[in-house]
From TrEMBL:
Source superkingdom: Eukaryota
Protein name: Cinnamoyl-CoA reductase 2-like isoform X6
Domain NAD(P)-binding intervals: 13-89
Protein keywords: NADP, Oxidoreductase
Similarity section: Belongs to the NAD(P)-dependent epimerase/dehydratase family. Dihydroflavonol-4-reductase subfamily.
UniProt xrefs under SUPFAM superfamilies: NAD(P)-binding Rossmann-fold domains
Coiled coil: none
Amino acid sequence: MGTEMEMEKRVCVTGAGGFVASWIVKLLLSNGYIVHGTVRDPGGEKYAHLNKLERAAYNLKLFKADLLDYGSLVSAIAGCTGVIHVACPVPTSTISNPEARSAKNKWLCIPSFLIRTVEMLEPAVKGTLIVLRACSEAKVKRVVYISSAAAVVKNPKWPEDWVKHETCWSDKEYCRATENWYFLAKTEAESIAFEYGKQNGLDVVAVNPSFVFGPVMQPVLNFSTLLLLKFVKGVYIQIEPGDVDGVPNMLWGIVDVRDVADAVLLAYKKPESEGRYICVAYNITIKDLAEKLKSLYPDQTYLENFGEDDREYCVTSEKLQKLGWTYRQLEETLVDSIKSYKKAGLLD
Ligand SMILES: NC(=O)c1ccc[n+]([C@@H]2O[C@H](COP(=O)([O-])OP(=O)(O)OC[C@H]3O[C@@H](n4cnc5c(N)ncnc54)[C@H](OP(=O)(O)O)[C@@H]3O)[C@@H](O)[C@H]2O)c1
């Protein structure tokens, strides 16, 4: 670790074309790293933005790899000192048609209970193990696993308004019982990653972001972008299974995608980084978020008639800040997100 890692700057990023990974790739390239990016369909239009990044022409190489294909990952990781494991199925395509629940508030429901476990858990959990085995094979020095606040917050034993930190883990049985497959997948994958690291002498660090917003550069919209985009159109996306009455005034943890990339680079290169790092800049109720957006963009439609406060998702990034992480103002994140949606013609 340490100085050696500073010198050898060849890093593999899995799922390189996704929202979060694209910004990680951009940051690594601008810091002089050679990047091996894994994608499932190299040459596909959905990765064209990667090839346009500064220094991509000579420092970015895309590899065709699937999370369940060990051989493809071994080829992509060969020669790398580090791996940033980002790839994971995140449910977006299973969102059902809009359904009006009230005159004012439109509603989108993600039937995550309909996502078969094989679609979510296999690539997320087994895929992570396969990535780690390929890392051992290549004698990688450090793996940064992009986990999620979803692996931290979901536990019925904690008081709702309790601020969660790195020792908190979502309760897998509870996630299974409540059919929160994404929460289960991220919790299972992260815990398995640390277990594997311990048993096989592989240095594993996790970064656990909350909702990641910020400018999009990739053409295929990821879930959190869709969430904010719909939000500024006055549509609420229900993020958990089950029937909910009204729009719960949830506390959203928010972080800018560019600040997530900074956190990942810190976690990768700081010799002292260890364990997990919650990555959140702001905890804000969606009612207050709607107010803030309204003050910035009064012409958009906003949600109204919020229900009960729900503070389950309150998390803190004190540990990451001690590592030297800073984050930008929420207004900057929102303005830059909206600007990019407008530029892409998503918010006319
Ligand atoms: N966005 C957030 O708010 C947020 C918050 C917390 C944690 N995270 C985590 O951050 C990571 C990236 O999320 P994102 O928001 O950037 O989503 P995204 O844009 O949908 O990216 C997901 C990536 O995973 C890849 N992938 C999915 N299944 C795969 C498989 N079987 N084999 C290989 N690659 C596969 C996809 O590759 P293709 O390009 O080939 O389809 C895609 O690039 C995920 O691990 C997610 O859990 C995101």
